Amino acid sequence: MSALSVITNAATTLEEARSIARLRPRYGRRLAAAAALLLAGLGVIGACVSQPFVAARPPSAPELSADPARLERDVRKLVETFRPRGYRHIEQLDRAAAYLGDELRAAGGRVTEQLYDVEGRTYRNVLARFGPASPARVVVGAHYDAANDLPGADDNASGVAGLLELGRMLGRAPLRGDVELVAFTLEEPPYFRSAHMGSARHAGALRAAGVEVRAMISLEMIGYFTDEEGSQAFPLAPLAMLYPTKGNFVAVVGNLEGLSLVRLVKGAMRGATDLPAYSLSSPALVQGVDWSDHRSYWDAGYPAVMVTDTAFLRNRRYHTAKDTPDTLDYSRAAKVVTGVAQAVLALANE
Questions:
Q1: 1: domain range?
Q2: Which of 39, 49, 112, 322 has the greatest number of beta carbons closer than 10 A?
């Protein structure tokens, strides 16, 4: 290669390098802007999903407070007296239903039953109405059956005990609207996510009768809490950036159509007690979001949320023989029920 060629090539290379150097700031700025937009977008999504800035709502009846001792009594009654509560054990389910009806009636509820047949067996939902008739109804429910022949203390004797205690609180509350408490049957397999769930039958009957439902709240496992670091798991890893890693909070779970309902319930629960309340609003494709009776009301076109201790994402005894009454935290469960009561009053009295 001649000296002239070397000089020419070197000049060309130098000019290309200068051109690249001139472009770098421009591309760097564009990359930084794109990264900023991405982070902002993720922030907006995170804010929608978790709604972290919901303010505590002052309680309308601060004198109402759930009793931890009664919660424990009712959990033990369901687990020890009416076990097993699986779908095959009609006699035990009927005995449990009778007990629930008696307790809700004693609390001042107007109690009825919704009977229906599945594969030659008759099952029943227990319904209790509180407050005067109004154009729109607030529904709160919990399933009283248990998986297989398991004790089902957290899943879901805790939710049913909460429902009974809620009835006792509503019986002495200043209600201006119609509230219906429902103890559902057949939430567990083999009828889970089917038209045979008690909640599906109830939601369908409301829709067929043209009843307007302002909100439905499902109490699904509300008794297990722990302050152990790393005890809280998540259906998607990025959610760990938005929520505590200790299982010491209660969660309000809803869909994207129900953001306002999630905010109201969460705000009421935050204002009622010092128990941390977080929320998740998400499509049903996220694991666990629709894994309870609130799904039946979504299917019927009603707004609904689930209040939960996050079930299997925290409680490793879920669907095992170790889900027993002595593993639950009744003091914190009582705070859950106290918070739900304030949310119900806010909804019914608006």
A1: 1-50
A2: 49
- Model pLDDT for residues 148-205, shown as the tens digit of each residue: 999 999 999 999 999 999 999 999 999 999 999 999 999 999 999 999 999 999 999 9
- CA distances 172 to 175, 344, 345, Å, are 9, 13, 12
Q: How many domains does the chain have?
A: 2
Q: 135, exposed or middle or buried, with CB in 10 Å at 0-12, 13-18, 19+?
A: exposed
Q: CA–CA distance from 114 to each of 68, 74, 126, 128, 203 (Å)?
A: 29, 22, 7, 11, 12
Cα dihedral 117/79/290/162 (nearest 10): 110
CB 94 within 8 A of CB 67: no
Q: What is the pLDDT of residues 7-33, one digit of tens each?
A: 344 445 656 656 555 555 655 566 554
Q: Which residues pair with 61 in a beta bridge?
A: none
pTM for the full predicted model: 0.88
